Amino acid sequence: MLHSGHVCFLKTAADYGELHLGIGADKNVKELKGRFPVNTQDERKYMLEALKCVKSVRINRGSGMLDFVQELKRIAPDFFIVNEDGNSPAKAGLCRELGIKYVVLKRIPHAHLPARSTTSLRRECRIPYRLDLAGGWLDQPSVSKLGAGPVLTLSLEPTQEFNERSGLATSSRKRAIELWHTDLPGGDREKLAKLLFSYENPPGTTEFSGSQDPIGIVFPGLNRLDYRGGFWPEKITTVNDPDILRWLERHLHLVTLGPRRSSFQVGAGARVTAANVRALALAADRCWAAILKMNLAEFGREFRSSFEAQVRLFPKMMTAEVRAAIKQYAGRAAGWKLSGAGGGGYLVVVSEHVVPGAIRIKIRSGPP
C-alpha cells in the first residue's frame, strides 16, 4: 500500500546513488505474514517503477526474510538501505560478508506531511500491543500446574506497524479491533480482558491463546500476572509509576528478526518439567523485583535468565537466526530475550546505551 512514507524513504535512499529495489513476491509475503499483500507483486512493481527516483524494480526470487540474496549479488551495490522497521542482524551480517555498506534510515516524514505507515492507512487505531517481559508460558495451565509463577507484560502504544506473528499479541489485537474498532472502551479492565479472551477462545477451542495477551493489551503500564494452574491469573498487579515506565522505555530495544513462518512448531521436543517451570517462575519473580528497584544489571541478568528458562522448556525457540542475533549483542547488552515463542519476531535487548537500528517503545500508561 504505497504511501508518502515509502516515497520519502525512497527519495532519501536515492541520494546515495542509482536506486534499485527488490520487493517481496506474493507467495513469500503470504508465508511470512500469513496473508497475501493488498496489492499484487505486479501492481506494486508497476507503481514503484513509475517513481522518477527509482532506476529498476525486481521481484525477489528467494524465500524468507532474506528473499533478496540473488538480486543483491546480481546488482552488487555499494549500499544496501533499509528503514528502521526493515533492519535486522541477518541483513547487516549478509552485507558484511559481501562488502556492502549497510545503511539504516529513520522514519522521518517529508516536511509538512504526517508520518505514515501501512497500518495508519488501513485504520487510525489506538489499540495497544502487548510485550511479554518475563515468565512467558506460565499463562498456559499445562505449564503453571507444575509450578506457580508470574508473567510480566507491558502495554505498548501502537507507535508504528509491528510485524505480525512476532510475539506482540497481534492476533489478540486483531480480535480487539473487531470488538472495539479503534479504541479500548472504558469500564472494568478485567471484565474487558475476559471478554477479549473469550472472544478469541470460543467454545470448542483446542489450542488456547494465553490470557496474558488480552490482559497485556487492556491493562496499561507494567503488569504482573500470577498464575497457578488456571487459564486466568489469581492476581493482577499493575504498575503505572512514570519513573519506572520511562526507565523501561530507555533501556528496552527491539531488534527486528522478522515474523515466524506459519509452519513453525515451537512445541516439538518440549521439556515441560517441574524443575524447568520452577526456574522460569523464579527468574520472572526476580525480574519483577529488579524492575521495581530500577536496577539495570540485575534486570538484565534475570531478563536473560527468564529467556534461558523458556528455551529449556521449549528448545525450538532458539533458532540459528536467533542465536546469530544474540551473538551480535551479547558482549554489549545487559540482557536479551525473544518477544514471543521463537521462530522470529523481535530480539528484545536490555541496554544502558542506544542500540543502533533498534526500535524504541512507548509504554501505554494509566492512572498512577
Describe this entry's structure for a reader.
The chain has 368 residues and is α+β, with helices and mostly antiparallel strands. The chain folds into two domains: 4-121, Rossmann fold (3-Layer(aba) Sandwich); 129-360, Ribosomal Protein S5, domain 2 (2-Layer Sandwich). 39% of the residues lie in helices and 17% in strands. The chain has 14 helices and twelve strands. The chain has helices spanning 4-14, 26-33, 41-49, 69-75, 89-98, 118-122, 141-144, 170-180, 189-200, 212-218, 242-251, 274-293, 296-313, 320-329; strands at 20-23, 56-59, 79-83, 101-105, 129-134, 149-156, 222-227, 235-239, 252-258, 335-338, 345-350, 359-360. It is globular.
Offer a concise description of the structure.
The chain has 14 helices and twelve strands.
Which key phrases capture this entry?
2 domains; 368 residues; globular; alpha+beta; Ribosomal Protein S5, domain 2
Instruction: Give the % helix.
Output: 25-40%
How many domains is the backbone divided into? 2
The biggest sheet, with number of strands, parallel, antiparallel or mixed sense and barrel status, is: 4 strands, antiparallel
Order of helices and strands: HEHHEHEHEHEHEHHHEEHEHHHEEE
Radius of gyration over C-alpha positions, nearest whole angstrom: 21 Å
Strand order across the biggest sheet?
Answer: 5-6-7-8
Question: Which parts are unreliable, with pLDDT below 50 for 5 consecutive residues or more?
Answer: none
CATH class of the largest domain: Alpha Beta
Provide the CATH architecture of the largest domain. 2-Layer Sandwich
* Principal-axes shape call: globular
Number of strands: 12
Share of residues in strands: 15-25%
Given helix and strand content, the structural type is alpha+beta
User: What is the terminal-to-terminal distance?
Assistant: 39 Å
CATH fold node name of the largest domain: Ribosomal Protein S5, domain 2
How many helical elements? 14
Mean pLDDT value: 90
